[in-house]
Specification:
The structure holds 2 protein chains of 2 kinds. By secondary structure, chain A is of the alpha+beta class. Chain A folds into 3 domains: about 120 residues, Roll (Ubiquitin-like (UB roll)), CATH 3.10.20; about 150 residues, Alpha-Beta Plaits; about 250 residues, Rossmann fold. Helix content of chain A is about 25%, strand content about 15%. In chain A, strands 16-15-21-20-19-17-18 form a 7-stranded mixed sheet, with helices on both faces. In chain A, strands 1, 2, 3, 4, 5 and 6 form a 6-stranded mixed sheet that branches. A 3-stranded antiparallel sheet of chain A has the order 7-8-11. In chain A, helix 13 links the parallel strand 19 and strand 20. Chain A starts with a helix and ends in a 6-residue tail after the last helix. Chain B is an alpha+beta fold. In chain B, about 20% of the residues lie in helices and about 15% in strands. The chains are: A alpha+beta, B alpha+beta. At the A-B interface, loops of A face helix 3 and strand 2 of B.
Chain lengths: ~575, ~190
């Protein structure tokens, strides 16, 4: 009997949890095991009791200055000297509740702690804090871009009162302040949560924001002589819980409740930041980062998120065209593809080269290789695009799918043939050029004179430009927000693009164009080949060992690591170090 | 739940044969018939042109002065007593509109404008009167008291484009409303 008693004693909940590095916490009456060192607010989130908060952000330090997350806390009373602790039948110590509330964001959990997120004290606290926060808040909701996704609106509905008891004049502060090229500040709306200040300091490494004045006159401002011009400044707009910081680009364009959200990935560099695309109808309105702790945390660079306006610009190509007498005339897809196939058959396989793009998806690159096989040419390449890494999220490889090109084409350097193709075009040994998704006068290093040399150029292009102008057959393709597909980022993570808007007019998905071009070369029916992108992915996966067993839907919204490249994303390394140091909860 | 159970009233034997009700109705009809022959029916003065004074001769005669105060006609935008256009293009009416008749393009007020502090106003404001069902939801939802249903009911046009009221037309119908929203007039 004494044996079993000893075992029972050894298996108290606190010991069981301690073995796993966890602690027992009672949240609203339910005992839960959570990791040691976790903030109370995160523990409550685990228990699906979200505590309202403004200043707390899991990726930033917690100063605890908004006071919205007040909860009631209790610990077992300290036993008197010589007194044995008394465990209840479940093995927990009785909790002595503290009479005053504590903030859940800056306190960590400990063994046998109790947290109450409901009850009289907590309700009264939230109502009180809400009332204070709303004292000076202007009635700007009808003109405020944040309306619809404003935490102040949301919590004011939950915890606020109908009218204000405050009879004095509201404090006037600067409105519509120009603090940087991409961000607008409205100080009256600011609730002094300091998230933007901490973000610029801790994540972006450019601490230009700060508070001046005291008390009710506290004002968010930018350092004199400086501007909020970091390439990460628009993240402050995302994390601002109210409408104090708004994006100049999205300002007054559309109310957020009209926008449809589509989960996709960024295609401006090899990192492949996870994004949400916000569109109404067929108009893309904004791009925001989406949390993925293995890719971009919750951030993304401004240069990448604003790079979508070309999609519906004047230069966008909308119809397949054939060049005759120096002018392009719109024709049907069938005519354009038949003409391309007919013209290509004139040339010997060694006279044909394909320049594809590492901005294409795996599926499209696969179809490019299929097309090259059909034409019998071994000269197919992507265009390398490299720059400086910014030490945060922007990768040195500015192509989003270089790793994918390596995997799908089974090549260590898919861009290697480019130099030969370029000299081939220049010396006239390459007479026919197929260009997919690349502007050759840019990174590919062709001159306009070079483009005049080949006897035949067919290209898939998004925008009008020198290459489109030189193309004898011009096929309009789909932009990143208009297509589905998969890409592999620099760290070797397979991720998915999703369609947020339809391609304009006659423009089509690139993989469909490639499929139909191949069919036209074979003389088969125009839609011979895979009917859906899912089928195409399965065919790709069958040939690439890293993708074996995967389907588009299995990739999921957060992607899957498929290959180890050894490349690290600097911002994530910083974040992990800060998490390990206990500065943030992550 | 807010469910009210209604029981049918118990009818007496006299009510069940409903002959009395028919007679009652006949008497009422005859009373109106005699009144109209004597020229004493309701509205006889206004509707005199009909001869008997009971039928409105539309369109020679119009509903205009006979409409009740709560009548819901064409929606229109209003300006305030200082000539400021009240609408700030919050697009709540566009959101609430059941037949999706409203289309707004927002814009920023330039900084040299007298009302620059309002920051936002509609660049375009179109109401498709073919779609409009005169429900009044836009008036109810408006946080700035900028859109009202006026008493215009005869909305006509020769083509579909004529039936779309643009911003200019909406302000023309709407006119000026005083008071109500004063938050932009404070010392700001």
């Amino acid at each position: 009997m004494s044996d079993t008693a000893a075992t029972a004693e050894a298996k108290l909940p606190k010991d069981l949890a301690a073995e796993k590095g966890l602690v027992n916490v009672q949240i609203d009456g339910v005992w839960l095991q959570v990791p040691r060192g976790m903030r109370m607010i995160e523990a409550c989130k685990l228990a699906q009791n979200e505590v309202p908060h403004y200043c707390y952000h899991p990726k930033l330090s917690a100063p605890g200055n908004c006071r919205m997350c007040l909860v009631q806390m209790g610990m077992p009373p300290r036993p008197a000297p010589g007194q044995e602790p008394t465990y209840d039948e479940q093995g927990y110590l009785p909790i002595g509740w503290m009479p005053r509330p504590v903030i859940a964001c800056a306190n960590t959990v400990s063994e046998n702690m109790g947290i109450r997120t409901t009850g009289d004290i907590v309700t009264k606290c939230r109502e009180g804090v809400m009332e204070f926060l709303l004292i000076n808040h202007p009635l700007d909701c009808p003109i405020c871009d944040q309306a619809g996704e404003c935490r102040l609106q949301e919590f004011s509905v939950e915890h606020g009162r109908g009218g204000s008891r405050f009879v004095d004049m509201k404090v006037k502060k600067p409105k519509n302040v120009d603090i940087g090229p991409r961000v607008r500040l409205d100080d009256e709306r600011c609730i002094m949560c300091s998230r933007c200040i901490r973000f610029m300091d801790e994540v972006a490494g450019d601490p230009v924001l700060g508070f001046t004045q005291r008390g009710t006159h506290t004002t968010l401002t930018v350092h004199p002589g400086k501007k909020l011009d970091s390439n990460y400044s628009l993240n402050t707009v995302d994390i601002c819980p109210v409408g104090a910081l708004t994006s100049n680009d999205f300002r007054f364009q559309m109310r957020v409740w009209f926008l449809k959200e589509t989960k996709s990935i960024d295609v401006n560099c090899g990192t492949g930041a996870n994004i949400t695309i916000w569109a109404r109808g067929n108009k893309l309105h904004r791009v925001t980062p989406r949390q993925n702790d293995d890719v971009n945390s919750t951030w993304m660079p401004d240069s990448h998120r604003l790079n979508f306006h070309y999609i519906d610009s004047e230069a966008r190509l909308t119809d397949p065209m054939i060049k005759g007498d120096g002018l392009h005339t719109p024709v049907s897809w069938k005519d354009a593809l038949t003409a391309a196939a007919k013209d290509l058959k004139v040339f010997a396989p060694s006279e044909i080269a394909i320049i594809a793009s590492a901005r294409m998806t795996n599926e499209e690159l696969f179809m490019v290789r299929e097309l090259a096989t059909e034409l019998g040419t071994g000269a197919f390449t992507v265009v390398p695009r490299s720059g400086e890494s910014d030490g945060l999220l922007i990768s040195a490889d500015r192509n989003p799918n270089t790793t994918g090109a390596k995997l799908v084409w089974g090549s260590q350097d898919p861009a290697a043939p480019l130099a030969d193709i370029r000299s081939g075009v220049q010396n006239g040994s390459i007479k026919a050029l197929l260009v997919f998704g690349e502007e050759l006068t840019a990174e590919a290093g062709f001159s306009k004179e070079d483009l005049a040399k080949p006897a035949f150029i067919a290209s898939i292009q998004l925008l009008a430009g020198p290459t489109a102008d030189a193309s004898h057959v011009l096929l309009p393709g789909a932009a990143f927000a208009e297509k589905r597909g998969s890409m592999v980022n620099v760290t070797g993570r397979l991720q998915r693009l999703n369609r947020a808007v339809e391609p304009p007019a006659e423009a089509r998905d690139d993989w469909e164009v490639l499929r139909d071009l191949k069919a036209a070369l074979q003389g088969a029916a125009p839609t011979a080949g895979p009917a859906m992108i899912e089928d195409l992915f399965k065919t790709v996966a069958a040939g690439v060992p890293e993708f074996s067993g995967l389907t588009l839907s299995k990739i999921g919204d957060l992607g899957l690591p498929v290959v180890e490249t050894g490349v690290k994303i600097p911002l994530l390394e910083n974040e992990r170090a800060r998490k390990a140091a206990g500065l943030i909860n992550g | 739940m807010a469910v009210v159970k209604v029981t049918r009233p118990k009818l007496a034997a006299g009510e069940k044969i409903y002959l009395g009700a028919i007679l009652k109705g006949f008497v009422i009809t005859m009373k109106h018939a005699f009144d109209s022959l004597r020229g004493k029916s309701r509205g006889a003065g206004d509707l005199a042109s009909s001869g008997l004074g009971v039928t409105m001769q539309y369109p020679e005669q119009k509903w205009d002065e006979h409409l009740p105060d709560h009548y819901r006609g064409a929606p229109a935008l209003v300006t305030d007593e200082q000539g400021r256009e009240r609408c700030v293009s919050c697009q709540l009416c566009e959101f609430i509109c059941p037949p999706k008749a409203i289309k707004i393009t927002p814009s920023e007020i330039p900084s040299d404008d007298a009302w620059a502090k309002v920051e936002k106003r509609p660049l375009e404001f179109d109401i498709d009167m073919i779609r409009c069902i005169y429900c009044g939801m836009c008036e109810e939802v408006c946080p700035e008291q900028a859109i009202f249903l006026r008493k215009d009911y005869a909305i006509t046009g020769l083509k579909r484009a004529d039936m779309v009221h643009n911003k200019e037309k909406l302000y023309e119908i709407g006119g000026v409303r005083e008071g109500l929203v004063n938050k932009w007039n404070e010392l700001k």
